Amino acid sequence: MRALVVAAFLVPGSALAGGYELAPQSAAVAGAAHAGAAISNDPAAAWFNPAATADGEGFRAAVGIILGGSTVRATGDGWEGATANPLSTPPYLYLSYSHAWWAIGATVNLNYAGGVRWPDDWEHRFEILESRPTFARVTAYFAFRVGPVAISAGPHFDAGSLRIRKATDHVAEEGSAEIALRGAGIGIDASAMVRFSPYAQLGLTYRSRTAIPLEGEADFEVPEPFGPRFPDQTATSHVTLPDRIALGFALRPKLPKSGAAPLRILTEVSLTLWNVNAETAIDFADEATTDTVIPNDWQPTMAIRGGVEARAHRYVTVRGGLYADGLWGAPSPAETLSPSSPDSTRLGITAGGTIHATDWLAIDLFYEHLELLPRTSAGDALPVSYRGSANLGGLSVSLTVPTSRPAADGPNEG
User: Fold this and answer.
1) Residue 60, SS3?
2) Would strands 385-401 and 361-376 be described as parallel, antiparallel, or unpaired?
3) CB contact set of 294 (below 8 Å; sequence gap of 6+)
4) Which residues contact 94 (CB under 8 A, 6 or more apart)?
5) Close Cβ partners of 253 (under 8 Å, ≥ 6 residues apart)
6) Helix (H) or strand (E) segment spanning residue 27
7) Residue 168: which CATH number?
8) Cα gap 124→127, rounded to integer Å
9) The whole model's pTM is what?
10) Closest by alpha carbon to 55, among 95, 99, 94, 96?
11) Strand (E) or helix (H) holding 7
């Protein structure tokens, strides 16, 4: 029975909630639907396309916070439940310095985070109560420019945790089980920016997968008679954060007589290789506890994003955008869809703007609403239909200290 309860606890081991990459990583870029692969002349380029910072324009910095709240609703045969997800507040910091043809930079943010928290008394508390993957990323890079082409490369370091919690059924009483695993790993990033003219440029970015060994504790709170059969113990596992490739284009329309319009158009197509999450394997220290291997069979996903930015006033820039994430479906197939990974195709709309307090100092704001399209599990998965929505916002302060050389005109000048 002990092995069965432990195995039941881990059945939602696909608990890395589907598509838990956080797209909002800059209040400035988020207003244009997170289409950042081709941005430049913004401190957030250190994250979205580091090659763009090799422009000789001096020191840039941005610090900000994203606020997000989401709700997922699950409907089964004669019951309905909704998550009680807490407000999330991931921060970020971007730094870069460019001189002449080269640049260096560093970023710190919460790149992968998500999960769900169901009420303690919900219908399927014995399946899952909480699933929460949280991984922060630190990057450093060097970039250089040769003519119209700029290239960057550097390492990234990921560290974080995976927590899963559920209720356990002991006939007359209930208990709880929680697993908390932590780990770190490294990968590499590379990007390129090609400037075709003062009005158009193309960006390409690649972030490699990160293999992260995990180690932590499995804790059981059970009625006293069951205590000897469910001891607390250590456990190990692993997670692989996916490769991501993004291609973006920035265009600043050219007017017949006055040159570039006070407008830019940003587009991006990205591919995230979630197929690295083929299974979840848990190894328990106690030999009496059966190790568990759970198939996830996740698949790659594609997102398309488009946004517009316009200089409405000398001191004000406004933005808006639309996106679709998971064009051919969410990472988890219907056969492994569970209350711990209730993801689906996401449709979102964004709006934002910048207040240019001075030539060097700016304040960025954005708002986003997204919908998780309805989806139903299949096969041997728990028969449930899911739908959901989220509202996000953010604020950042950015600083630009240019060199004495005037900045070159480009498609990202406001």
Assistant:
1) strand
2) antiparallel
3) 10, 11, 13, 14, 279, 280, 281
4) 26, 43, 44, 46, 47, 60, 61, 62, 63, 105, 106, 107
5) 199, 260, 261, 263, 265
6) helix 27-30
7) 2.40.160.60
8) 5
9) 0.90
10) 99
11) helix 2-10
Residue 310: partners with Cβ closer than 8 Å, 6 or more residues away? 262, 263, 264, 317, 318, 319
Q: What is the pLDDT of residues 237-289, one digit of tens each?
A: 999 999 999 999 999 887 666 655 688 999 999 999 999 988 888 888 887 77
What the block records as the tokens of 273 is 């290789």
Terminus-to-terminus CA distance in the chain, angstroms? 65
* Burial letters 294-322, b for 16+ CB under 10 A, else e: bebebbbbebebbbbbbbeeeeebbbbbb
- Calculate ∠ Cα 37-42-48, nearest 5°: 25
Q: How many CB atoms lie within 10 A of CB 222?
A: 18
Domain count, the chain: 1
**Residue 409 resides in a domain:** no
User: What is the average pLDDT across 299-308?
Assistant: 96
Calculate the alpha carbon distances from 2 to 225, 228, 276 in Å. 12, 10, 31
Domain-located, residue 132: yes
- What is the residue whose two structure tokens read 């997204």? 370
Does any domain span residue 90?
yes
Q: Other C-beta atoms within 10 Å of 367: how many?
A: 17
142 in any annotated domain: yes
Residue written as token pair 């509202």: 391
For 96, how many CA atoms within 13 A lie in the half-sphere containing its CB? 36
Which residues span the domain enclosing 386?
2-401
Residue (of 293, 320, 408, 314) closest to 35 by Cα position:
320
pLDDT digits (tens, 9 = 90+) for 336-357: 888 888 888 999 999 999 999 9
Q: Cα(277)–Cα(294) distance, rounded to whole angstroms? A: 11
Q: In this structure, how many other beta carbons lie within 10 angstroms of the beta carbon of residue 278?
A: 12
Q: What is the pLDDT of residue 273?
A: 96
Query: What average pLDDT does the chain have?
Result: 88
CA distance 206 to 107: 15
Contact between residue 30 and residue 393 where contact means Cβ atoms under 8 Å apart: no
Rounded-to-integer distance, Cα 98 and Cα 46, Å: 11
When pLDDT is cut at 50, 70 and 90, the band that residue 9 belongs to is very low
